[in-house]
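MODEL INPUT / OUTPUT PAIR
PAIR INDEX: 1
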Amino acid sequence: MIRFEDATIILGRKRSRAVIAKNFTMRIRRGDFTCILGPSGCGKTTLLNVIANFQLQTRGEVLIDDVSVSESKHRLGYVFQGHNIFPWKTVRQNIAFGLSSLNMDEQDKNRRVNAIAAEVELSDHLDSYPDTLSGGMKQRVGLARALVGNPAIILMDEPFASLDALTAIRSRELLKRLSKKHSSTVVFVTHNIEEAIELGDRILVVSKRPMKVLIDKKIPTTMGADSQSGIALKNEIFDALKLNMDV
């Protein structure tokens, strides 16, 4: 379980400082696919960065299974909005980077890379460089890099935001299959309400800064975005977000 307990998160200093969260409490259950929605600039990406120990909270605690994120031994994968893969490395080398902290021989690394490349449908492109790939393929490289080390937690920051509609749909279908197969805890930041309902086991809607949780809902597996209950939830989320926009 990931827990924010009375956490205060402040970015910057003095006049330029931004209070992202104050006495903020949030819990993400192990094995859940949790989607986080909130207004632009509220600090959703900062929450991911705190979980990843890239950004420290000022006060309070952020824990993974009751251990501080700064001391946790859990493996994390991170999929960025802009794919963030290395242009000078091949697809194989980019995916293998996800294994760089593990003590594995080359044969085992290649076996692991080949297996995950097949899962994300990139087996025929392992020797290609990123500049020859489409946007969707680049994002699949980033997903493979995050998954290849079998992480306990996968953090995803609007990974499909820059993709065209059809590619985004196919990417979501792939992610649903992979998340079920790998049984990781997924924390997925998005602005897309329908995407959150489609992918998530649970939806958290957060407010503008300083952040607080406005909606915390478990999503039944039978709920579709276009079902009566799905439409009602979309409207509830939309209204909450609309009231928390800085205009």
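PAIR INDEX: 2
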Amino acid sequence: MAEGPKIISDLVQAGLKIHSLFSLEEAEGFGVEAAVISPAELQKISALKTANSMLAVFYLPEKPTLPEKGLVVALDAVRDPGNLGTIIRLCDWFGVKALICSEDTADCFNPKVVQATMGSIARVGVSYTDLSDYLQSSRKPIYAAVMDGGNVYNEKLPKDAVLVMGNEANGISEAVLALIQHKITIPNFGDVNTAESLNVATATGILLSEFRRSIET
């Protein structure tokens, strides 16, 4: 489910197919006829505190095929829908085509996640699997963001790799951590280390930027 003309249009342009479309006024260009409903009716079916002017229910996309090359992001029990949606959007921005999620990560089709992606959910393939099994079978070097890792700004990061990001409160699980080959961290530059850690989505954005910068330099 997605809400708002822009995100609905982005999803349609990216190839997703609408099942049902509800709007406060007649709407064209979405591939289906819109059911015109009242503001009160739209608010009843909306997942937002204040409904937008349009809501669409989409068919789920086909299960994505994992690319053999390139950078892949793997999430270990990231539970917050807003964080997941932002990470999907970051993957789209930095050209990461595949996002691997542990089975206890938030549902990527949760309406809050879809809204946070701003349409990127249609351009990033999200797969759910046993993360330990996936990492054990991967031929790519495996990196992870941890507090006691090496300074990421001193690393020469590869084009082909898996970047593992952990749970908001507990970080990466012991089972997954045992499979990590390269531990990296974003150093704290404050005079006093008052911040306990970075938000997982913020950290993902910084690290993806470093992976891409490392390729270009």
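PAIR 2 NOTE: The chain has a mean pLDDT of 94.
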